[in-house]
């Protein structure tokens, strides 16, 4: 072989992708078990996608819990669980510190289609949780900034393995936001109040009759007293006039004959009577 041919041959070897060896790609032990349980050889994964790898450094920074800061619920025995071992702590009752609104690590499930197995199934992501102490009834902890993280997910559809790219979002900043939104207000009856995070009625209590009061939620006038049973067979409770009145069908019948209805007997009377 001439020197030119040797140089060309070496150049072609240099341009080729280096062979991927299993020892060059570090997989978590759980992932190898996942493949083994699914009956998929690790070598086939490497051949299908030579660029697949799991980085050693996560893009998500989350604090770790030590043995003294184990998260506890009010009850360590969920109603749906059986055989849970509960340790009663002989501590003096105390008032716990408030968990204010901020990003916290939670186990987040990777979105997937039906009948699809994935690795990983869950990942740790920061999510905005916690209390908005001053306005607990009207505000909740909401995300205000987040990072979009590109990750590779291993999927098994039937018995076929695939590598897919997806984007997951890690919350980085939080704030207290109104639970009710301006779009929840009825523009015909309500106006948005940013200070109270609620919808204010356009109408006032003065617009209701003396025997009525304003319903602040529905912004309609309602009777002061509860609905009553009407003893007269031809009468029903009238929510507009807040009393027992003759049925509408009887009133329409009298009106069609150009007669007045007797409010006591619900019978039609002549106009000239």
UniProtKB/TrEMBL annotation:
UniProt cross-references to InterPro entries, sorted A to Z: Cystine-knot_cytokine, PDGF/VEGF_dom
Signal peptide start-end: 1-22
Keyword Lipoprotein recorded: no
A GO molecular function held by the record: growth factor activity
GO cellular component, one term: membrane
Ranges in a coiled coil: none
Domain Platelet-derived growth factor (PDGF) family profile: 99-181
SUPFAM superfamilies, A to Z: Cystine-knot cytokines
SMART domains xrefs: PDGF
Keywords for the protein's UniProt record, in alphabetical order: Signal
Source taxon at top rank: Eukaryota
Designated name of the protein: Platelet-derived growth factor (PDGF) family profile domain-containing protein
